[in-house]
Amino acid sequence: MNRSLLVSALALALATPVAHAWSRQGHQLVGELAERQLTPEALAEARDLMEGEADPNLAGVSTWADEIRAEENELGKLSKRWHYVNIPGKHCDYAPARDCPDGECIIGAINAQAAVLADRGQPRQKRLEALKFVVHFVGDAHQPMHAGYPHDRGGNDYQLNYRGKGAPDGQGTNLHGTWDYWLLQSAGLDNAAYADRLMALPPPADTATGAENRPLAWTLESCRLIHSQALYPRGHRITDAYLDQHRPLAEARVQLAGARLAALLNQALAPGG
């Protein structure tokens, strides 16, 4: 990506008042990384479900959940709370009745939609929707601010002023938007180059492999990073130094999301699964 395109991308991100999730690039990277790690059987089943989609691959369907939410159609409104969980306090003490009542949060949504996807008795359209939800929500679960604090709505209400190469005169945004967009887009790579780069890196250790509730483990992992990695900047100003400091963590989260999504889909889409 050349400098002018990068500045334009950053300007667009800066103008976004309330971010939805990883940027389009972030979600597409998760989908691309996952598809590269599917078994032949799971890949064939996924492609069969996606037949007829405008872009019939995991990267292509990865932003659908945000698109229907933006349109505010019936399913978009129903799924609005499925994109995140807010957990008070830096210790990330998750209380299901308080933080995810009736399973209406990202943890419950991943588990529920993965079950629909794995059920061959479900209508094809329901399984396709479940696939698209799972691809998106696994990505969301690895964005720390999607498991953020309720008092500022996962950083959406934590206002920032950015001064850097994308906005030399300063530009307002928020912490959630910084994590959704800037950290990845400011690398200046297109999707293919970025995916190749991430696949070539040593994979981060997966400490949640044996967890009974993997989406819960992934989400609490994200939540704990907010405090342990000091994601809230001092004051309300950031520069390119903040992006450079935290980009490796964002990339590691995308790597993990891709690998974990592949593992989930390999299980859900296995023959007889």
UniProtKB/TrEMBL annotation:
Keyword Hydrolase: yes
Coiled coil: none
Protein name: Endonuclease
Assigned keywords, A-Z: Disulfide bond, Endonuclease, Glycoprotein, Hydrolase, Metal-binding, Nuclease, Signal
Key word Signal present: yes
GO BP, sorted A to Z: DNA catabolic process
Signal peptide (from-to): 1-21
Gene Ontology molecular function: endonuclease activity; hydrolase activity, acting on ester bonds; metal ion binding; nucleic acid binding
